[in-house]
Amino acid sequence: MKKESQTKIGGSIWGIEETKERIDTSEKSISLVDVSKEREDIKEIYHKMKDIHNEILYEMKQVIAGQEKVIEQILIAIFTRNHALLEGFPGLGKTLMISTLSRIMDLNFKRIQCTPDLMPSDITGTYVVEERDGRKIFKFEKGPVFTNILLADEINRATPKTQSALLEAMQERQVSVGTSTYPLDKPFFVLATQNPIEMEGTYPLPEAQVDRFLLKILVGYPNMTDEDRIVDLYTGEVIPKTTKVMSKEKFLAIQELTRKLPIANEVKKYALDIVTKTRPITDGTAKKYLDYGASPRATIGLVLAAKARALINGRNYVSKEDIKEMAYPVLRHRLILNFESERKGITTDDVISEILKEV
Asked: Could you tell me if 228 and 324 lie in one domain?
């Protein structure tokens, strides 16, 4: 029996049947882990995950018109304990989207407006002299990085020195200042924005830092209907407001639940095939259009993103459609086009589409 259908496990959070079923893949049959002893809060969240997702979307729609796909991808990034890079033209609501999401989820939010004169200590914090009991001592004053959601607005306007200050925070969830190391709050995410049209006075992110972002999310123009609602929302007398729909504890439980979602070997192999096809080693699309392909970090990210997408859509299994849908935001910033591709105006999304046809 070869299928990507709902997995049923007796007494577990993944199903309500009393008997266990097995998923047969093209390679071998795998048995899922029995999680019947999971905490009650995890079980409750799993059964209500679709409703939780709908509640978040409902509250977001009080402030944001349209952009459902963008909001979904931001949720996927933060539910997998990862970071996201949002790229779009000015005035499309990127900053508003992120700040609204933090209020709905009851998370601390801080914003950095990146400029060429921004220093690393402006982000991480610095030592200040404080007088105590007649003595002067050094005290560490925490910077804006000590929060739950950090918005780095127009990150490509910061200098490479300042951009690199975020590297340790993004990967290790800690900040090193002098001889001391300070752990960051949990959860912690960097959601960065950049403007693709103004290149003067900007510093493109180095490849090592771009790779730290799970997703690169493209924010496009709203359609006529959504823009009409935007005008009504922000030219009327009533200011749009939102309410909190979850606690920080519930949010952390969702993160834990996301990683527990099972994936069949066949679907996992599909993700592996996609990523390996991006490497210009053998003849094919990658060799024709790319100088460099995606690393194993992309494979990890693709599987995690697919798990989160399945969960917020109320499914207890990962499908190939999840993998295919998440391939674009996971891979588009990890592929480096060759000169011929850039000359012809070919984008990384075009290359990903061709690779998906090959797999």
From this structure: no
What is the domain count for the chain? 2
Instruction: For residue 323, give Cα distances in angstroms to 11, 46, 103.
Output: 28, 21, 30
Residue 51, C-beta contacts closer than 8 angstroms, at least 6 positions apart = none
Burial code of 34-43, b = ≥16 C-beta within 10 A, e = fewer?
A: ebeebeeeee
pTM above 0.85, yes or no: no
In this structure, what DSSP letter does residue 174 have? E
Q: Mean pLDDT of all residues in the chain? A: 83
Q: What is the pLDDT of residue 290?
A: 92
Measured distance between the N- and C-terminal CA atoms of the chain, rounded to whole angstroms: 22
Tell me the torsion sign for CA atoms 288, 294, 296, 300.
negative
Write the CA distances from 196 to 8, 83, 211, integer angstroms: 46, 19, 18
Q: How many percent of the chain have pLDDT more than 70? A: 87
Please tell me the distance from the alpha carbon of residue 157 to that of residue 115, in angstroms, as a whole number.
Answer: 5
Distances (CA, A) of 148 to 103, 271, 304: 11, 30, 20
Q: Report the Cα 70 to chain-centroid distance in Å.
A: 10
Which residue shows structure tokens 């979602």?
261
Question: Which residue range(s) make up the domain with 6?
Answer: 1-34+261-359
Q: How many CA atoms lie within 13 A of 229 on its CB side?
A: 12
Determine the length of the chain: 359
pLDDT at residue 199 is higher than 50: yes
**Rounded to whole angstroms, how far apart are CA atoms 268 and 319?**
9
State the Cα–Cα distance between residues 264 and 347, nearest whole angstrom.
31
* Helix%, strand%, coil% for the chain, nearest 5: 45, 20, 40
Residues 114 and 251 in one domain: yes
Please name the amino acid found at residue 135. Answer: R
The H-or-E segment that residue 283 falls in is none
Report how far apart, in Å, the C-alpha atoms of 133 and of each of 3, 129, 136, 137 are: 71, 13, 8, 10
Residues 154, 230: one domain?
yes
Position of tokens 């935007």? 230
List, in sequence order, every residue forming a beta bridge with 137; answer none if it has no partner: 130
* Nearest alpha-carbon partner for 293 in 279, 283, 307: 279
Phi, psi dihedrals of residue 309, rounded to the nearest 5°:
-65, -40
Q: Name the domain boundary from 217, 238, 258.
A: 258
Cβ atoms within 10 Å of 138's Cβ, excluding its own: 11
